[in-house]
Amino acid sequence: RFLAQYARLSLASLPHIALAMSSTLRTSQSGALRRSWIGIWALAAALAWACSTRWSAPTFTPQVMPQHPRRTSTAGPQRRSPGAPTAPWARSATVVESVANPVRTVAESISDFYKAYPQPPVLPMYRSFLIDFLTQIHLVSVDSRFKYDAVFALGVKEYYSGLMGTYDKIVGSGQSEKIWKALIASLGMDSDKVTADAEAVTAFAKSTSPAQILKEVEDGSTSEVGQAFGSIGAGLYSMPFSVGLFKVMELSGVEVSKANVEEWAKALKVSTARVTGDLETYKLNKKKLQNAEEMIREVEIREKKKLAERLEAKAKALAEKAAKKAAPAEAAADAEKPAA
């Protein structure tokens, strides 16, 4: 900027410089000196012209940064111009939202359960086990490989009975049956049918020997229970099937041991590792339930003992109060008696 201003001043003063140099040249006697002054004047003029063109005052133009689409944290839809390009993630979201999902979610099943059984609330000690059980059955039932049968029904019923067997003892009313109906309905099943199928398998296992059951499985019996056993290996195998199998073995008089379970698993064409793993889980859960029932019995005994102590203390206090009220009356009666 300084050089540009200097150049403009130099150009403005060029006429004066030229006049002074011309007078100097006229008075100069030496030709060499005249030529040197001409060169100096030409150099000064060239320098002034260069400064005025190259080092002119710069003009700054503010830069406008390009605007890029970015995600925002707002939940509502964002307005945009009709011709604006659509972001790739917006297109993906639109495609996903436009596809209907026919598979129910776990959250929907849990919500339906609480709608069917709003009150009274499930006790906290049982709530976590109950929701976990509901989640397991839901994930099995929505699988495309799942096929419902009577053995599955027995396993579900037996698992629930073991889980909620002591519930009515605590709450003092028949709430477990209401919870059962709400649970099965939230899974899209008929509670009456599940109960009836479980009872049918129970009656079959009690009246049939283990050898006959295995024979029907191998020969492919046409009965409903036989078909249920025969189709276990073809569909999705899950924990309720294992529980139903263990209950059938128990009802038919077979010890539910690892060796016997492996033998039955081979006959049913089911993975022995899967069945033995479910057996360990089944025994562990039964042990937990037994411990819970024992704890409940101990609590009941303590509560009954405390109640008896409170009743005894109350009776004693009433007796003392009655004795205090009777003492003045007895004293007055003694005073009214004539002296002997």
UniProtKB/TrEMBL annotation:
Residues 61-90 are annotated as: Disordered. Keywords: Coiled coil. It comes from the Eukaryota. GO terms for biological process: photosystem II assembly. Transmembrane segments: none annotated. Residues 282-321 form a coiled coil. This is Uncharacterized protein. It comes from Alexandrium catenella. The lineage of its organism: Eukaryota, Sar, Alveolata, Dinophyceae, Gonyaulacales.
